[in-house]
Design goal:
The chain has 366 residues and is α+β, with helices and mostly antiparallel strands. Helix content is 53%, strand content 12%.
Length: 366
């Protein structure tokens, strides 16, 4: 352990402490404004995949939710999970009316585990804030509070169901975008029942090629979808990686996994547009002012110094092609500079920057 870096020690510690701390590490990995870049890179190695819970235990959760044997609810139920993560696992099933669905089931006991782990986190945060002066720079208590809010929403599937229904409403007139139907009569805090979308994940490049999929057309549809979410609806998918987009027949795109969403008010939407314009026009002073206008801060911010630091980060990449530069990564890295100048960035802004990184990554995959 003595030869390991701080990031490596922290990653191993989170892995040892269990799923709640793994998710905390994943949150930190996406927040270069809160932790050093080398630590963030190491925490990206954390994975949320865990061994599946035996179906007998998941069946207990289902039957407690429905108040009856699952055979009274489903015509068939696949006991082998499609996916298993720290919060929940997903199974295929068929309802009595023949509807093919996926059922997301919360892992038994996970809420008690999270409550215990959060109690430990809050205690540690209080101790750090009290005895470690540097902790104020890293905003430890704010990190734990943000994490609590995120987990509270992620463990309430009624919230996820409501998010999905809002996306459905937003895309009702967009024939190229498919949002799965929510079966609200079957859904509750610990169980989410959705229409199964049968398609090819965008991450499966070889399968797309074999099917003769027009990948450029898919990218255009996906980009229009994303821009609509951000600049028209103010509600965007917060985990839009290639595995969460399915290519359906006729170049239709299906979106899945709405556990993390971002919400943008009009002020933030305008600021994001101005930031992107400033980035591509090399107007670093304007970019700095947009940050200052959007993010709370204490004390005086030296905007000229802030703009110079942004220029030092971004200027070397100007003139390069899309293939060689990642605008989302530059914006995400710029949040670390903003933090060093005393700015406390809104979570939604960082989530947006992270989503740009994912979108650009998908463009390179496809």
């Amino acid at each position: 352990m003595e030869n390991l870096s701080i990031g490596e020690r922290l990653r191993l510690c989170f892995e040892h402490l269990g799923p709640t701390f793994v998710k905390l590490g994943q949150l930190l990995a996406a927040r270069p404004d809160l932790i050093p870049p080398d630590v963030a890179e190491e925490l990206k190695k954390l994975h949320d995949q865990v061994p599946p819970v035996p179906f007998a235990q998941m069946r207990t959760v289902l039957e407690s939710h429905f108040g009856s044997d699952i055979n009274q609810v489903f015509a068939s139920f696949d006991e082998e999970p499609l996916a298993a993560a720290s919060i929940a696992q997903v199974h295929r099933a068929t309802l009595k009316d023949g509807s093919k669905v996926v059922v997301k089931i919360q892992r038994p006991g996970i809420q008690a585990t999270i409550a215990e782990d959060l109690s430990v986190m809050y205690t540690l945060a209080e101790l750090l804030d009290k005895y470690v002066p540097e902790a104020k720079f890293y905003q430890v208590s704010s990190i734990v509070n943000e994490f609590f809010k995120a987990l509270d929403q992620e463990t309430n599937f009624v919230i996820e169901a409501n998010n999905i229904r809002r996306f459905q409403k937003n895309f009702v007139n967009e024939p190229n975008i498919k949002i799965p139907e929510v079966f609200m009569d079957y859904t509750g805090r610990k169980v989410l029942v959705l229409e199964e979308l049968e398609g090819i994940p965008l991450s499966h490049k070889n399968a797309l090629e074999q099917e003769g999929i027009d990948r450029e057309a898919i990218l255009r549809v996906g980009l229009r979808c994303y821009l609509k979410m951000v600049f028209t609806d103010g509600l965007f998918h917060g985990d839009l990686h290639a595995g969460n987009l399915l290519v359906l027949p006729n170049n239709q795109i299906g979106l899945i996994d709405f556990g993390v969403v971002g919400r943008l008010n009009k002020k933030t939407q305008a600021a994001i547009a101005n930031m992107l314009l400033a980035l591509f026009s090399e107007d670093y002073e304007r970019l700095a002012y947009e940050y200052v206008d959007l993010a709370p801060y204490s004390g005086h911010v030296d905007v000229d110094r802030f703009a110079r630091d942004l220029r030092d980060l971004i200027a070397p990449y100007h003139g390069l092609t899309f293939k060689n530069v990642n605008a989302g990564r530059l914006l995400l890295d710029s949040t670390g500079i903003a933090a060093r100048h005393g700015l406390q960035l809104p979570t939604e802004l960082v989530l947006f920057f992270k989503s740009i990184v994912a979108i650009e990554g998908m463009g390179r995959i496809v």
